[in-house]
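Annotated sample (chain length 762).
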Amino acid sequence: MNWRVVGFVLLFLGCVKITSAQHRVLLNVSDAYELSPVVQALVYVNNNVAGVTDTDGRSVLMLPTGSTQLKVYAFGYDTLSQTITVRGADTLQLRLTPADVQMNILVVSGTKYIKPIDKLTVSMEVIKGEDLTRKITPNLSDAIERVSGVTILDGQASIRGGSSYAFGAGSRVLLVVDDMPLMTADRNDIKWNFVPLEIVDQIEVTKGAASVSYGASALNGVIQVRTAYPEGKTWTKASAFQMVYPEPAGPAGKWWGKEIPYQSNISMAHAFTTERGLDVVLSANVLDARGFLVGENERRSRISFKTRKFFRDGKIAVGLDGNFLYKKQGLFLFWANDSTSAYLPFSSGTNVSTDDLWTSLDPWVKWTDRFDNRHTYKMRYYMTSQPLNTRMEPVAHNITADYQVKRTLPFDIAASAGLSATQTIFIDGNVGGRHGGNLAGVFVQAQRSWKRLELQAGWRYEVFRIDTIFTPAVPVQSYGLNYELNPKTHLRASYGEGFRFPSGIERFLKYNIDILYVYPNPELKPERGWNYELGVKRRMNIGGWSAFLDAALFYTRYKNMTEFYFSQYGVVTDPLFGFGFSSVNVTNARVLGSELTANAEGKIGRMKIILNSGYTYVCPVDVDSMPELKSFGRLVQYAAETFNTIESNSDSPILKYRYRHLGKCNLDIEHDNGISAGVGLRTYSYMERVDSVFSFFIPGLDHYRRTNRNGSAIMDVRFGYAFNDRHRLVLHCTNVFNRFVAVRPAKPEAPRGIGMQYTWSF
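Output written by the structure step:
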């Protein structure tokens, strides 16, 4: 036997076997939000560099049969680590999620293009999803209230003094969840507890008019919530917290006896990708609360889901998302007095109980055509109802369709355009029965980047109809620039216009709650706003520290601003001789102010420190009551002269229900042994103007305002321990000094609360 021949044959067969085990795998790497290709991403196979993606986000690999560990690195994105099983030639789609790289926070809301936050032309604050687990956060409003320059009065958001309090009717701040508005058809308000916090990835708060990008109701700003996908990983999260309120604040009596007010909450979320490539996210939340205010209890159950499927090498993605909530809730309107009965209602008639069923369904599709145009078509059906009422009302339906296309034009101009349409139907005996309306709009935006300069411009055209009332087209525009003074300092300037159509409740509601009578105003006009801003953002990197300092000057003009006013709107035969509240147009209003924020993250030894803080000063005035303030120079002078004064007299031009000085600070310290501590502080100046009729009718309100002219502050503290990467325990004490505070007049904030939260993730 010729052993040389045998050896040659065996060697040949071995080589054939090895060669046959190599398979061609085509990777398509794209952005998880925009489906755009990720260029120059490094691909590692078993910790060795195996390829780099090209201009189409593609990389070809030759991989052996069996399990292979892939890692993909790209600047501005979270590192993707995934184990794949290779059986033959295949195509694999990978989606990278924008990351926070040393506080180089990437956002989408400002221009609908992903970019670093320091290159925006407008002011924006970002809340990362992991921040929600550091603090007990039962509702989205609790997270937003921590943002500098933002106040939430009994559910109504105001950014930099741009909104008043109107008893839940209308909002100048638009809530957007996964790029689609989530506002009710009848009230045009935000349902804070409908947002599934358990799957939130990032929250972006845009300050100032943003109607060009998002349409009506973005007059005062936008809250954009982005929820998470599996992104190649299977993950599960669960959390539970218990909060109790053992002692009332101030002189109020302990009305609850042995049944201490509490909040109990359980949340769960699970995300995975099926063998056929279907991304699935499931979540659920259950809350049971016995309020510290008599009658303000809540029981809710919410479930949500998200799905996503890619086709044609990642060029097409389709999905269906859904959210369902049922709750029973009591609402507390006014106290009986500001002392011994502060947590008791003015009367049994000023408490309202509701049974609510809310539903949203969102089908969508994204695709990239052969000309590299990126298209998005989304729909949202949003229904709010009270199904246990005998008349099955009120019920409101909101159906929105939105189409957008993005393309890079010659000279590197990034352009986007779109169409949107909304159909609303709501039925309520308190607004005269059935009403229907339509809203339609078209927008165009473009931006251009040079080495140091970013330019942005946009335009929108929108029309609105409700019943037979047709509102002519409302054109708005926006312009912005961002100039890189040096690699760490960016200057910005922006001008944006906004508008808001009155809600059905503001136009048609005729209702009373005890002494509060509300009259309709069908002639209510749309609001318009013009927002100007100058700002500078400074990045500082010292050792292991990264920080942003931001200073902004802003000026907003409003025309036909809607405010809730007390006057005689009925006839003398009506209750209270026809006196009551109605939404009316304030012809001209101005808001001038400044804001300074500081955000930092770094390490001192073995401790990681995270700081988010800000101070805001606003001077909101009705210039029709003091015409000389129409002059910008005179307004600046007035804002400076009254900086440390209280303008509460009846002829003051200060707009009602605003805080002129706001301070927010959140500091968290995390040791690498798992121990953490944090403190949160919210400060409010004196609310200078409220409706005088409230001081006359509501016991104790005038006394509370006279004895609390120095403002108020609420401090929270928290301590935590992370047993490992999966288990975390947090002890949280809210209002630690048990201060008696009424941020919204005649409704106290929570007394000292003591809570514990356990979070498990896998």
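Annotation: The two ends are 61 Å apart (CA to CA).
Annotation: Residues 126-761 form a domain with the Maltoporin; Chain A fold (CATH 2.40.170.20).
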